[in-house]
Amino acid sequence: MQLIINKKVYTDNSNEADENSVFVVSKQNEKFKDNAIENGCKEIIDSSELKNHIDLSSIKIIGITGTNGKTTTAAAIYSILLDLGYKVALQGTRGFFINDERVEEYSLTTPVQLGNFAHIQKAMQNDCDFFVMEVSSHAIEQKRIEGLEFALKIHTNITRDHLDYHKTIEEYINVKNSFFMDESKKLINKDDKVVKYNPKNGFAYSLDDPSTYKVDAYSFKNGTNIIFNHFGEMHSFSSGMMGIFNVYNLMAAVAAVHITTNKPLDKICEAVEGFAGVSGRMETISSNPLVIVDFAHTPDGMKEVLQSFNEKDIICVFGAGGDRDKAKRPLMGSVAASYSKHIIVTCDNPRFEDPDMIIEDILKGIKNHTSVQIELNRKEAIKKAIEMADSNSVVLILGKGDESTQTIYDKKFPFSDKEEVLKVLNKE
């Protein structure tokens, strides 16, 4: 990755470093420092010093972290700000966007540090007022966000995830919480019981506990309708998006825009109604039969989705990723069994693991297997679920969201849950 500042090249690749460039040392590349020197590089700086080499004062950076909801919350903030007339960049799992145009395709949720600075620089060159970014736990632990000053940090929730990397839930929680220990402005989901943060410059949103932006009432009749309280003043908005978790996501977005712009809340509420959601996040692919695709891939994420359809007969199609946290698999099975009338356990992204063994782990969490089918072929699993559906059903296809590939060993094969649904329904 390269960054050019005042015609000088900054690089984190030691093979690119020479006498005319600056080598930026980070946690990821520090072992290659000697190689950069051997290549003639005379100017070497620590990644924490980058902020002293580029002026970022003209742009407000909003960072969102949490196990679930980062992508939807970030996209909602981006959409609202654009509707209010601001120029905005968005960086996250769906790619890099500037003013409603995708500039780069999918990448890491949070790029390496030089990549963040390069994207922010590009946003400033396009006169952006805001830079909205998803912040992963890996990025926090690996200091990929070092040197960035945030106008607002947002916490969505902390549930079990990425334990293949962090090893324990306690370590994962600690890493997430570390993002909120400074004195920058922060917006916290007050209903999350494991979050810890520095209260200075703290704001909160909630459904249950007292907070700065407190939801007083919500309903899911003809979409989602929300009434909330901000220091005694009542405000409301509606959305076509479904699920309690989207009440949280939308409230975080509304509060974030209010904090960072001071625009009237009524204007922000008007703008949020124009946000239709994110592809692969609680996305309705068909209304008859009702078929929904979602990215939920953790026990808590699945629970949130499944709980949103307690008036329906749920047909749940899901698997679990290979080479990832194995302990969550029986928990995912248990959650699916608690809410679903029918379950089809299938293949997700097995990577280097045996799909049969992954499914075996999932089944350990399901006591009664009478309503459970095993179908390794995800295409066939989706077909079976749709054929099973009637007017009282909802087919929930979970785990991959808007992913366009399936990873088997180290190869990626074209595969889209949405496209497979449309093929079955002959709508493509």
Plain-language structure description:
The chain has 428 residues and is of the alpha/beta class. The chain has 13 helices and 23 strands. The chain has helices spanning 33-38, 70-83, 113-125, 137-141, 163-166, 169-178, 244-261, 265-272, 299-307, 328-339, 355-363, 378-388, 417-424; strands at 2-5, 8-11, 21-25, 43-46, 60-65, 88-92, 95-98, 101-104, 130-134, 152-155, 186-189, 202-206, 213-219, 224-230, 233-239, 283-287, 290-294, 313-318, 342-345, 372-374, 393-398, 405-408, 411-414. Helix 9 packs parallel to helix 10 and helix 12 (378-388) crosses helix 13. The protein is globular and about 70 Å long.
Keywords:
Protein-Tyrosine Phosphatase, Chain A; 3 domains; globular; six-stranded mixed sheet; 13 helices; eleven-stranded mixed sheet; alpha/beta; UDP-N-acetylmuramoyl-L-alanine:D-glutamate ligase; 428 residues; Udp-n-acetylmuramoylalanyl-d-glutamate--2,6- Diaminopimelate Ligase, Chain: A, domain 1
- What is the CATH topology descriptor of the largest domain? UDP-N-acetylmuramoyl-L-alanine:D-glutamate ligase
Structural class: alpha/beta
Uncertain segments: none
Total domain modules = 3
- Count every beta strand, where a strand is a DSSP E run of 2 or more residues: 23
Number of helices: 13
Which range does the strand content fall in?
25-35%
* N- to C-terminal distance: 39 Å
Largest sheet: 11 strands, mixed
Look at the structure and give the CATH class of the largest domain.
Alpha Beta
Q: What is the assigned CATH homologous superfamily of the largest domain?
A: Mur-like, catalytic domain
Cross-sheet strand order for the largest sheet: 8-7-6-9-5-10-11-12-13-14-15
Categorize the overall geometry: globular
Helix content: 25-40%
What is the arithmetic mean of pLDDT? Answer: 93
